[in-house]
Amino acid sequence: FRVFSFHKFVRCICCFAVRFRTIPLSYERRKKDMIKTVIKLNSLDDINEFENELTKVNADVDASTKNCGYIVDAKSLMGLISLNTTEPIMITINADDASLIEHFRKWMVE
Fold this sequence. Notes:
Order of helices and strands: HEHEEHE
Number of helices: 3
């Protein structure tokens, strides 16, 4: 019997859900239809605000960190919480509209 903190419990549930889902169609898109940027989310409030901003984006947005080994849907609050937020997060916008990057200026890493 092991005792987990709530954060570790949520992370385990999210990892399980992400690893056993089917691959979304957005992964099959061509590379020219993707915009990539790196962001940093420092707190739970940042995560919540970022997720709320994503509701304004009419495109699939994926997120991953360098060492996590999986990609999550960035519009999913549980998916974002499951990432290691001590590291920068790679955001992939599955669209070719460069103006969508303006939604993420506040959290972008220089």
